[in-house]
Amino acid sequence: MSTRIVIDCDPGHDDAIAILLALASPELELVGVTTVAGNQTLDKTTRNALVTLEIAGRSDIPVAAGADAPLRRQLRTAAHVHGDSGLDGPELSEPSALPVEAHAADLLAELIEPGVVLVPTAPLTNVALMLERHPEVRDRLDRIVWMGGSIAEGNVTPAAEFNAFVDPEAAAAVFASGIPITMVGLDVTHKALFTRAHAERLRGAGGAGRFVAELSDFFQAFHERSYAFDGSPIHDAMAVAHVIDPTLLTTRRANVAVETRSEFSDGRTVVDLRGVTGREPNADVGVGVDAARFLELLVSRIESLA
Ligand code: BDR
Ligand code: CA
């Protein structure tokens, strides 16, 4: 039996690839996609989610747009990473499907049943709003696998990873909710780089493969310039991969608290690996990854979409 998942995202190159990985994987059934402002504004992230589903011929999957700004802060996008469209690189056509009428927070509440895994790959604004509007969902949401946070260095500030930094109040609310959460942060995503060789393998492999190769051309150029990386971390796809095959990641149970009131460290995920705070563990935190196996899974699954 496949695991039903909902992806709450802000596509975003790696969000789009995460969606395609889910669609290509028989272990998963993607039952809905919700969008939030993050990498780009909400209109763009919603269009990009619809475009991605259309490329895979899966416009039957409902897409609901959610929050157009963080809970209490101004939106900070990542246009320098993802471009003006949020998916710069490939030529994007307008999607023919439309989002459903429902707000993302309400569609999430509707789709979440016992057994469904929520995979947010974006700031946690929609998830926090869902918990606020539909507190009863807490009891039937078994598991969240979130791409975000970092034990060590951040990628927006020295202290904070983007998804945590954009809406720290939302992240703090979700970590405090008591729902089992796995944090797939930069500590693991930066260890598995999708290279130009991976892109070349996909370029000739049908529409989805070409789309991913062209996304990677743009995404990789940013990572070469900014990090001197020889490839790009496909952060969000690692959260989906963890649901497909939990053995890809090594995790540690720890308390995670999110900084919301600091001059230098807002959005920092404070991970208490040694239990020095006395705070109860509330998360499983990614600390290691089998990079070769993750990348092979990702590339071979996208190839199979052709
Ligand atoms: C996260 O931030 C976004 O730019 C990516 O889509 C990913 O979700 C990585 O820090
Ligand atoms: Ca994302």
Describe this structure in words.
- The structure is a single chain.
- The chain has 13 helices and eleven strands.
- The chain has helices at residues 13-23, 42-55, 79-82, 104-111, 125-133, 137-140, 162-166, 168-175, 186-189, 196-203, 206-227, 235-244, 291-305; strands at 3-9, 28-35, 63-65, 117-120, 143-147, 181-184, 193-194, 232-233, 249-258, 269-272, 283-289.
- A nine-stranded mixed β-sheet has the order 3-2-1-4-5-6-11-9-10, with helices on both faces. A two-stranded antiparallel ribbon has the order 7-8.
- Helix 1 (13-23) packs antiparallel against helix 11 (206-227).
- By secondary structure, the chain is an alpha/beta fold.
- The protein has a single domain (3-304), classed as Inosine-uridine Nucleoside N-ribohydrolase, Chain A.
- The structure holds beta-D-ribofuranose (BDR) and calcium ion.
- Calcium ion binds at residues 9-10, 12, 14-15, 39, 121-122, 236.
